[in-house]
Design brief:
The chain has eight helices and no strands. By secondary structure, it is mainly α. The protein has one domain. The N and C termini lie far apart (57 Å).
Length: 285
């Protein structure tokens, strides 16, 4: 934000809720990057690669002897995911269990970005952006991909596509289409339109709720961090202002500790719903 004009609370929040949509240059006639949230794409891909690196590192370092603390932690996580997938998905889990593990680690990493100081990376980006000759006041950057509905719905759509894939793989194309028209009300021509409509509603509802649940919780957590940060920004020369600043630090620390549970729980819930939906695709009505 500009040093000449201290932002008010509304401007501060709006600035931090604005995505990086372009790099400040003239858009291509073929690809308009302004329609993409570049910050969401960058952080989600980077953290996804980090998750793959961490898990592959654990696999390469694994030993049958006395495990290191890192190996023991990863083994506990792998066993937890394997037990959950075994109890939900009845069939070949050679791809599903690793998928669930990747989903959990990836979403946890994206959620954990919320624990970083609110202004740290955006302020660094503003310095870089300003040094490139742009107005640093318009250097937008959001670092929590799961607080972007586009990211969470994109992952939910990916799960939906996997559900369709496994439905066709397990039941066959004809069997899946037959199920679309005969469940849940029964196999009767009069009921076919109602069955098909209910199936479509179920697909849409599951996908929307899957993505919006994660988004809603992380977006709300991000807003709370912003409101707490505003308490710190209210530091003034008066004694009460100092107390407000100290209160902001204290409240931010308490919320961050509590938020650790939220980011872990939300990653676990998304993983579990992924397993549940894919498990349902293995079942026949």
């Amino acid at each position: 934000m500009s040093a000449e004009h201290a932002p008010n609370a509304s401007e501060y929040i709006v600035h931090h809720l604005t995505h990086l949509n372009s790099l400040g240059h003239k858009q291509s006639s073929l690809v308009d990057w302004s329609v993409f949230h570049l910050d969401t794409m960058f952080w989600s891909i980077s953290l996804g690669m980090l998750a793959i690196f961490v898990l592959s590192r654990a696999a390469l370092k694994a030993t049958s002897g006395v495990p290191t603390r890192f190996q023991a932690a990863v083994e506990i996580l792998v066993e937890m995911v394997e037990d959950q997938s075994k109890s939900i998905v009845h069939g070949d889990r050679s791809f599903i269990a690793p998928l669930a593990l990747t989903v959990f680690v990836w979403i946890f990493a994206m959620n954990a970005m919320d624990l970083l100081p609110l202004d740290a990376l955006p302020r660094l980006w503003a310095i870089i952006y300003g040094s490139a000759g742009h107005d640093p006041e318009h250097a937008y950057l959001r670092i929590v991909p799961t607080a972007d509905l586009n990211a969470t719905l994109g992952m939910a759509v990916g799960v939906l596509l996997l559900c369709i894939y496994y439905s066709i793989k397990i039941k066959g194309l004809g069997g899946w289409i037959h199920e679309l028209f005969t469940a849940p009300f029964g196999n009767h021509p009069v009921l076919y339109p109602f069955n098909f409509a209910m199936q479509m509603i179920e697909f849409v509802a599951k996908t929307l709720s899957h993505g919006m649940r994660l988004y809603g919780n992380m977006y709300a957590g991000e807003l709370i961090f912003m409101l707490i940060a505003l308490m710190g920004a209210a530091l003034a020369a008066s004694f009460s202002g100092v107390l407000l600043w100290v209160g902001g630090i204290f409240a931010g620390t308490i919320w961050a500790i509590f938020h650790i549970l939220i980011i872990t729980l939300q990653a676990f819930i998304f993983m579990m719903l992924t397993l549940v939906y894919i498990g349902q695709a293995h079942e026949t009505h």
